[in-house]
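Fold this sequence, please.
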Amino acid sequence: MSALTDSMNTIHSLEEMAEAKTIIHRLHPMVKLVTTFLYIILVVSFDPYNVTGLVVFLFYPVILMALAEIPYKPLLKRLLVALPFSFFAGISNIYFNQNAAFMVGNTPITYGVISFFSIMIKTVFTVMGVLILIATTPLPQISYQLLVIKVPKIIVEQIMLTYRYISVLLEQVSNMYTAYILRAPDAKGIKMKDMGIFVGQLLLKSFDRAENIYFAMKCRGYDGHYLYAKPDPMKKSDWIFMLSTCGMLILLRFFNLSQFIGSFLQ
């Protein structure tokens, strides 16, 4: 029950963060979308053994979170959800790639270990970039800009509707779980023998709820076009922020700042 409540609170808190009025929130949605896409592409493009060049990209989420006044703790908590997937993907590299890259004292550091940390760092940076975008830009605005860059309309509307009504599904799961526990007060969760029935009932109730929501939308004038969040044109400040940020990101990608600082300090 607490996990469901946390999931619903996560959705609502991100929407509340996106309604703030900081300098980052006031930027044009296209600016934030382009810089986020570029940031993710550049982070992922790094060689799996180039950890030093990758670390400097930490500046992007740190500076944006400070300017947008986004609290660190809630976003870091959401980040933990993605880390286990990367952990198990990266830990296999430690086993399969045991060639020594360098020595720390008498301990060899293998290429597998380096690539493991590279995968984890890339996961942290990319997920943080997406979370910052969601926390500073309402989803309707993001969806409209996706249409502008020619993402298929059917995909954008599916993303929008899924995000909008996932809380409805979570509420339905919460109600069903509460009803189950009231009928089995000694149970610590849903028993495996009842899981099939529970999921089947959830599927049937979801179909019924979706049909009711669709009829309600039609009564309110829904005509197949769900996205109407057209923003104002981009201002001079938006162009300056986008070009300067993109230029800095590209510079950091092709100029190893960490290595330069290290050689300067020696």
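Residues 20-137+232-255 form one domain. The CA atoms of residues 140 and 229 lie 6 Å apart.
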